[in-house]
Amino acid sequence: MLPAWWTQATRPMLEAGDSPGTGAWIAVILISVSTLAGAWLARRESTRLAVRLAIASAMMMIIALTDMLPDAWQDAVETGVPLWVVGIAVAFGFLVITYFTRKGCACPSDSGRSPVGLYAPGGHRRLKETVNAALFGGMGTAAALTAHRAIEGATLALTASTVVVIALMAHSAGEGLALAALLDVAGQRLAPWLVVACVSPAVGVVVATFSPLPGQVVPVLLGMVTGVLLRTAIVGLKLAAGRQENGRLSRGQLVIATAVAITVGVLLAMAR
Question: Which domain of life does this protein belong to (predicted)?
Protein backbone atom coordinates (compact mmCIF):
# COMPACT_ATOMS: atom_id res chain seq x y z
CA MET A 1 0.00 0.00 0.00
CA LEU A 2 1.29 3.53 0.72
CA PRO A 3 4.09 5.06 2.79
CA ALA A 4 2.91 6.54 6.10
CA TRP A 5 3.98 10.08 5.24
CA TRP A 6 1.88 10.09 2.05
CA THR A 7 -1.17 8.72 3.82
CA GLN A 8 -0.84 11.31 6.57
CA ALA A 9 -0.40 14.10 4.04
CA THR A 10 -3.50 13.20 2.05
CA ARG A 11 -5.84 12.10 4.86
CA PRO A 12 -6.91 15.69 5.78
CA MET A 13 -8.33 16.10 2.27
CA LEU A 14 -10.62 13.12 2.83
CA GLU A 15 -11.53 14.20 6.34
CA ALA A 16 -12.63 17.50 4.88
CA GLY A 17 -15.17 15.57 2.80
CA ASP A 18 -13.53 15.93 -0.61
CA SER A 19 -14.44 13.20 -3.06
CA PRO A 20 -11.76 11.07 -4.71
CA GLY A 21 -10.52 12.29 -8.06
CA THR A 22 -11.22 10.87 -11.49
CA GLY A 23 -7.90 9.05 -11.34
CA ALA A 24 -9.10 6.89 -8.46
CA TRP A 25 -12.17 5.72 -10.39
CA ILE A 26 -10.12 5.08 -13.53
CA ALA A 27 -7.77 3.00 -11.39
CA VAL A 28 -10.73 1.01 -10.02
CA ILE A 29 -11.86 0.27 -13.58
CA LEU A 30 -8.35 -0.82 -14.62
CA ILE A 31 -8.05 -3.12 -11.60
CA SER A 32 -11.45 -4.66 -12.36
CA VAL A 33 -10.48 -5.22 -16.00
CA SER A 34 -7.23 -6.85 -14.87
CA THR A 35 -9.17 -9.19 -12.60
CA LEU A 36 -11.48 -10.19 -15.44
CA ALA A 37 -8.49 -10.70 -17.73
CA GLY A 38 -6.86 -13.03 -15.22
CA ALA A 39 -10.07 -15.04 -14.85
CA TRP A 40 -10.49 -15.22 -18.63
CA LEU A 41 -6.93 -16.49 -18.99
CA ALA A 42 -7.59 -19.26 -16.47
CA ARG A 43 -10.72 -20.39 -18.31
CA ARG A 44 -9.38 -20.02 -21.86
CA GLU A 45 -7.44 -23.29 -22.01
CA SER A 46 -8.44 -25.74 -19.31
CA THR A 47 -5.76 -28.16 -20.52
CA ARG A 48 -3.13 -25.77 -19.16
CA LEU A 49 -4.96 -25.14 -15.90
CA ALA A 50 -2.17 -26.69 -13.84
CA VAL A 51 0.39 -24.19 -15.13
CA ARG A 52 -1.89 -21.23 -14.55
CA LEU A 53 -2.87 -22.46 -11.11
CA ALA A 54 0.81 -22.80 -10.19
CA ILE A 55 1.51 -19.27 -11.44
CA ALA A 56 -1.48 -17.83 -9.60
CA SER A 57 -0.56 -19.62 -6.38
CA ALA A 58 3.02 -18.40 -6.52
CA MET A 59 1.76 -14.87 -7.15
CA MET A 60 -0.60 -15.09 -4.17
CA MET A 61 2.26 -16.18 -1.94
CA ILE A 62 4.45 -13.31 -3.12
CA ILE A 63 1.60 -10.81 -2.69
CA ALA A 64 0.92 -12.03 0.83
CA LEU A 65 4.58 -11.92 1.89
CA THR A 66 5.79 -8.78 0.10
CA ASP A 67 2.67 -6.61 0.13
CA MET A 68 0.05 -7.50 2.73
CA LEU A 69 2.26 -8.69 5.59
CA PRO A 70 4.53 -5.59 5.46
CA ASP A 71 1.41 -3.40 5.27
CA ALA A 72 -0.07 -5.10 8.31
CA TRP A 73 3.22 -4.71 10.18
CA GLN A 74 3.57 -1.03 9.25
CA ASP A 75 -0.05 -0.19 10.06
CA ALA A 76 0.24 -1.98 13.41
CA VAL A 77 3.29 0.07 14.35
CA GLU A 78 1.61 3.32 13.29
CA THR A 79 -1.66 2.63 15.12
CA GLY A 80 -0.19 1.07 18.26
CA VAL A 81 -1.55 -2.43 17.66
CA PRO A 82 0.77 -5.04 19.26
CA LEU A 83 2.61 -7.07 16.65
CA TRP A 84 1.63 -10.30 18.39
CA VAL A 85 -1.99 -9.46 17.61
CA VAL A 86 -1.11 -9.29 13.92
CA GLY A 87 0.71 -12.61 14.26
CA ILE A 88 -2.36 -14.22 15.80
CA ALA A 89 -4.51 -12.79 13.00
CA VAL A 90 -2.19 -14.32 10.38
CA ALA A 91 -2.25 -17.67 12.16
CA PHE A 92 -6.03 -17.54 12.51
CA GLY A 93 -6.57 -16.91 8.80
CA PHE A 94 -4.09 -19.65 7.90
CA LEU A 95 -5.59 -22.21 10.28
CA VAL A 96 -9.19 -21.59 9.23
CA ILE A 97 -8.40 -22.46 5.60
CA THR A 98 -6.15 -25.31 6.76
CA TYR A 99 -9.07 -26.82 8.67
CA PHE A 100 -11.38 -26.78 5.68
CA THR A 101 -8.73 -28.12 3.29
CA ARG A 102 -7.22 -30.64 5.71
CA LYS A 103 -8.45 -33.70 3.77
CA GLY A 104 -5.78 -33.19 1.14
CA CYS A 105 -5.39 -31.69 -2.30
CA ALA A 106 -4.23 -34.54 -4.47
CA CYS A 107 -5.86 -34.11 -7.85
CA PRO A 108 -6.25 -36.82 -10.45
CA SER A 109 -4.48 -35.92 -13.66
CA ASP A 110 -6.74 -34.96 -16.50
CA SER A 111 -4.80 -37.15 -18.86
CA GLY A 112 -3.40 -39.80 -16.53
CA ARG A 113 -6.57 -40.97 -14.78
CA SER A 114 -8.81 -43.32 -16.70
CA PRO A 115 -12.58 -43.37 -16.18
CA VAL A 116 -12.22 -46.80 -14.56
CA GLY A 117 -9.80 -45.33 -12.04
CA LEU A 118 -12.45 -43.00 -10.75
CA TYR A 119 -14.54 -46.02 -9.79
CA ALA A 120 -11.68 -47.80 -8.05
CA PRO A 121 -11.94 -48.26 -4.27
CA GLY A 122 -11.52 -44.86 -2.63
CA GLY A 123 -11.62 -43.04 -5.96
CA HIS A 124 -14.82 -41.14 -5.25
CA ARG A 125 -13.62 -40.22 -1.78
CA ARG A 126 -10.32 -38.86 -3.07
CA LEU A 127 -12.07 -36.94 -5.82
CA LYS A 128 -14.54 -35.47 -3.33
CA GLU A 129 -11.71 -34.43 -1.02
CA THR A 130 -9.98 -32.72 -3.93
CA VAL A 131 -13.14 -30.83 -4.86
CA ASN A 132 -13.73 -29.83 -1.24
CA ALA A 133 -10.16 -28.57 -0.89
CA ALA A 134 -10.50 -26.51 -4.05
CA LEU A 135 -13.94 -25.28 -3.00
CA PHE A 136 -12.89 -24.04 0.42
CA GLY A 137 -9.62 -22.73 -1.00
CA GLY A 138 -11.56 -20.82 -3.64
CA MET A 139 -14.19 -19.51 -1.24
CA GLY A 140 -11.54 -18.52 1.28
CA THR A 141 -9.63 -16.75 -1.45
CA ALA A 142 -12.77 -14.96 -2.60
CA ALA A 143 -13.61 -13.73 0.90
CA ALA A 144 -10.03 -12.69 1.64
CA LEU A 145 -9.59 -10.93 -1.69
CA THR A 146 -12.87 -9.08 -1.25
CA ALA A 147 -11.62 -7.61 2.03
CA HIS A 148 -8.18 -6.90 0.62
CA ARG A 149 -9.50 -5.24 -2.52
CA ALA A 150 -11.77 -3.02 -0.45
CA ILE A 151 -8.66 -1.86 1.42
CA GLU A 152 -6.95 -1.33 -1.94
CA GLY A 153 -9.89 0.85 -2.94
CA ALA A 154 -9.35 2.91 0.19
CA THR A 155 -5.72 3.29 -0.88
CA LEU A 156 -6.81 4.54 -4.30
CA ALA A 157 -9.03 7.11 -2.59
CA LEU A 158 -5.85 8.56 -1.10
CA THR A 159 -3.72 8.43 -4.21
CA ALA A 160 -3.74 6.71 -7.58
CA SER A 161 -0.14 7.07 -8.69
CA THR A 162 0.92 5.27 -11.86
CA VAL A 163 3.31 2.87 -10.10
CA VAL A 164 0.71 1.92 -7.47
CA VAL A 165 -1.97 1.33 -10.10
CA ILE A 166 0.35 -0.82 -12.25
CA ALA A 167 1.28 -2.93 -9.23
CA LEU A 168 -2.37 -3.34 -8.24
CA MET A 169 -3.29 -4.30 -11.81
CA ALA A 170 -0.56 -6.95 -11.89
CA HIS A 171 -1.61 -8.72 -8.75
CA SER A 172 -5.32 -8.20 -9.47
CA ALA A 173 -4.80 -10.26 -12.63
CA GLY A 174 -3.14 -12.93 -10.50
CA GLU A 175 -6.03 -12.85 -8.04
CA GLY A 176 -8.55 -13.29 -10.84
CA LEU A 177 -6.48 -16.14 -12.26
CA ALA A 178 -6.27 -17.92 -8.91
CA LEU A 179 -9.94 -17.45 -8.14
CA ALA A 180 -11.03 -18.81 -11.52
CA ALA A 181 -8.63 -21.74 -11.37
CA LEU A 182 -9.66 -22.87 -7.89
CA LEU A 183 -13.39 -22.50 -8.52
CA ASP A 184 -12.97 -24.32 -11.83
CA VAL A 185 -11.46 -27.33 -10.05
CA ALA A 186 -14.30 -27.19 -7.51
CA GLY A 187 -16.93 -26.92 -10.26
CA GLN A 188 -18.39 -23.71 -8.81
CA ARG A 189 -19.81 -20.68 -10.59
CA LEU A 190 -17.26 -17.93 -11.09
CA ALA A 191 -19.46 -14.99 -12.17
CA PRO A 192 -20.87 -14.01 -8.73
CA TRP A 193 -17.42 -13.92 -7.15
CA LEU A 194 -15.98 -11.94 -10.05
CA VAL A 195 -18.74 -9.36 -9.59
CA VAL A 196 -17.88 -9.07 -5.89
CA ALA A 197 -14.15 -8.86 -6.65
CA CYS A 198 -14.71 -6.07 -9.17
CA VAL A 199 -17.13 -4.09 -7.01
CA SER A 200 -15.17 -4.25 -3.74
CA PRO A 201 -12.46 -1.70 -4.74
CA ALA A 202 -15.20 0.83 -5.56
CA VAL A 203 -16.78 0.12 -2.17
CA GLY A 204 -13.38 0.75 -0.58
CA VAL A 205 -13.11 4.14 -2.29
CA VAL A 206 -16.56 5.17 -1.07
CA VAL A 207 -15.98 3.91 2.48
CA ALA A 208 -12.58 5.63 2.73
CA THR A 209 -14.18 8.87 1.56
CA PHE A 210 -17.16 8.97 3.90
CA SER A 211 -16.54 6.55 6.77
CA PRO A 212 -12.97 5.19 7.05
CA LEU A 213 -12.30 2.02 9.04
CA PRO A 214 -10.75 2.52 12.51
CA GLY A 215 -6.99 2.46 12.15
CA GLN A 216 -6.58 -0.38 14.66
CA VAL A 217 -8.83 -2.68 12.62
CA VAL A 218 -6.86 -2.51 9.37
CA PRO A 219 -3.66 -4.35 10.45
CA VAL A 220 -5.69 -7.14 12.06
CA LEU A 221 -7.80 -7.51 8.92
CA LEU A 222 -4.71 -7.50 6.71
CA GLY A 223 -3.13 -10.13 8.95
CA MET A 224 -6.09 -12.48 8.55
CA VAL A 225 -6.12 -11.93 4.78
CA THR A 226 -2.39 -12.70 4.67
CA GLY A 227 -2.92 -15.99 6.48
CA VAL A 228 -5.81 -16.98 4.23
CA LEU A 229 -3.87 -16.28 1.04
CA LEU A 230 -0.73 -18.06 2.26
CA ARG A 231 -2.67 -21.24 2.95
CA THR A 232 -4.65 -20.89 -0.28
CA ALA A 233 -1.40 -20.54 -2.23
CA ILE A 234 -0.18 -23.82 -0.73
CA VAL A 235 -3.49 -25.48 -1.61
CA GLY A 236 -3.24 -24.16 -5.17
CA LEU A 237 0.31 -25.46 -5.63
CA LYS A 238 -0.73 -28.91 -4.37
CA LEU A 239 -3.73 -28.93 -6.69
CA ALA A 240 -1.53 -27.92 -9.62
CA ALA A 241 1.01 -30.65 -8.83
CA GLY A 242 -1.76 -33.20 -8.40
CA ARG A 243 -2.96 -32.58 -11.95
CA GLN A 244 0.35 -33.93 -13.29
CA GLU A 245 0.82 -37.63 -14.04
CA ASN A 246 3.73 -37.95 -11.62
CA GLY A 247 2.14 -35.70 -9.00
CA ARG A 248 4.84 -33.04 -9.34
CA LEU A 249 5.26 -29.82 -11.26
CA SER A 250 7.91 -29.92 -13.97
CA ARG A 251 11.03 -27.80 -13.77
CA GLY A 252 9.74 -25.60 -16.60
CA GLN A 253 6.45 -25.00 -14.81
CA LEU A 254 8.27 -24.08 -11.62
CA VAL A 255 10.57 -21.70 -13.49
CA ILE A 256 7.64 -19.94 -15.18
CA ALA A 257 5.65 -19.64 -11.94
CA THR A 258 8.69 -18.34 -10.06
CA ALA A 259 9.58 -15.81 -12.76
CA VAL A 260 6.06 -14.37 -12.89
CA ALA A 261 5.83 -14.23 -9.09
CA ILE A 262 9.19 -12.45 -8.81
CA THR A 263 8.10 -9.92 -11.44
CA VAL A 264 4.97 -9.13 -9.45
CA GLY A 265 7.05 -8.90 -6.28
CA VAL A 266 9.36 -6.37 -7.91
CA LEU A 267 6.38 -4.26 -9.02
CA LEU A 268 4.97 -4.32 -5.50
CA ALA A 269 8.35 -3.37 -4.05
CA MET A 270 8.52 -0.42 -6.46
CA ALA A 271 5.02 0.65 -5.42
CA ARG A 272 6.07 0.69 -1.78
Answer: Bacteria
